[in-house]
């Protein structure tokens, strides 16, 4: 993706690297809703991992993808290596949904997906802290965004997930 494409197109133009290595192109999930959340191991919101895993277990058979994006941008609350992040997620929350390698999620050095979000929603739509949630609809467009304090199982989020899953 080029910088001039940051405010155009859909989320399928972006790609992450998996925590264990290997490509994670969002286009692999074309036609499926994807909940993308910047995560951190040592944050007051870290228990939301439990809720994210519950969403994954509840909706993955119907097509929802939950994608965790570790980031150390807020309060240096994700300082670990990929192996340390994986060990933490496995031992504390038994995370089964995909995780990316650690990325910047704010500012000029942010991953292109997050720059696209900011271009589409305005800077106020960029993450303000860990566990900011973005729902990409089955059409690849932003279908919802929720700040950290909104828990993943909140009715507003599950209603949008249900609506996205109902789309052809």
Unreliable stretches:
1-5
| Percent of residues in β-strands | 15-25%
From the helix content, strand content and strand pairing, which structural class follows? alpha+beta
- CATH class equals Alpha Beta
Mean pLDDT: 94
Tell me the total number of β-strands.
Answer: 6
Which sequence of SSEs, written as H and E, runs from N to C? EEEHEHHEEH
Judging from the principal axes of the Cα atoms, what is the shape? globular
**Number of separate structural domains:** 1
Q: Strand order, biggest sheet?
A: 4-3-5-6
Under the CATH scheme, which architecture would be assigned? 3-Layer(aba) Sandwich
Radius of gyration: 15 Å
Largest sheet: 4 strands, mixed
The first-to-last residue Cα distance is: 27 Å
The CATH homologous superfamily name equals Glutaredoxin
Count of DSSP helices? 4
Question: Helical percent range?
Answer: 25-40%
| CATH fold description | Glutaredoxin
Question: In a few lines, what is going on in this structure?
Answer:
This protein is α+β, with helices and mostly antiparallel strands and 168 residues long. It has helices at 48-59, 82-93, 112-121, 155-166; strands at residues 15-17, 23-25, 34-39, 65-70, 133-136, 142-146.
Describe this structure in words.
- This protein has 168 residues and is of the alpha+beta class.
- The protein has one domain: Glutaredoxin (3-Layer(aba) Sandwich).
- Helix content is 27%, strand content 16%.
- The protein is built from four helices and six strands; from the N terminus they run βββαβααββα.
- The strands form two sheets. It has a four-stranded mixed beta sheet with strand order 4-3-5-6, covered by helices on one side. It has a two-stranded antiparallel sheet with strand order 1-2.
- The radius of gyration is 15 Å and the shape is globular.
- The two termini are 27 Å apart.
- The N terminus is likely disordered.
